[in-house]
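Data deposition worksheet. Section B asks for the primary sequence of the deposited chain exactly as it was used as input, without tags or linkers unless they were present during the calculation. Section C holds the resulting structure in token form. Section D is free text for depositor observations; keep each observation to a single sentence. Incomplete worksheets are returned to the depositor.
Section A, Depositor: J.P.
Section B:
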Amino acid sequence: MKQRIITGTIAAIGFLTLLYLGGYVFHGLLWLMALIAYDELVRMGKLGRTSLPTIVGYLGVAFIALPWEQGDYAFGVSAEVWIWVFMLLLMTATVVSKNKTPIDKSALLLFGIVYIGVGFHYMAITRWHEDGLFWTLLIFFCIWITDAGAYFTGWAIGKRPLWPSISPKKTVEGALGGLVLSIAVAICFALYSPELISLEQAALLGLLIGIVGQVGDLIQSAYKRTFGVKDSGALLPGHGGVLDRTDSWLIVFPFVYLLLDIIS
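Section C:
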């Protein structure tokens, strides 16, 4: 526990400092994290780091993770087109490698490009926008308080398993405790900047972030069980790998953008 607290504190200070600075410094951090997360997926799936399709996968996630709709990154091509391009490259690489990386492994590589690349992409462009610091912090704080709230509420009063076949330690009580705290944090942000978000909108957003964040956590638990591993990596002592720490982020940030597109 001591190692976990020390690692978590150092990582949080460093991450929040670069988040506050924003710009290319923060984007560089996200880009590096995306590549490390993809490497963890490659190793879990035993895909081979040096195979041609895997190299294409690394290039794909490196490109997709950039905030390419913004500023100097702008290319004028939609996300769907870029994802299709890397799908074609992966399929071609499978042929060129004479099927040494079969189609099911190429599909996993493409999954990683979309899952990891798109997730970090939306983190980057959230921070890029006007008032981006406010919105990025709101989303992150809701994710983090959901995680902490679920853990401590579950530890204190948790009795009913939430999804035992996927994550035996999670409880219904813990999940509800995380949701309540996520709503409370979002409302605090609304009270701080009522011109950016109303109390009603904040409560709804906090609820949805809490739900989707916990779904993201369960998604990672599910595929780690498939791979037969406890942690995605060992980069962060006491916390596992980058994927272990960003499982909720990768789902929540794209979801918030989808939600805004639907209601706007």
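Section D:
The chain has a mean pLDDT of 88.
The radius of gyration is 19 Å.
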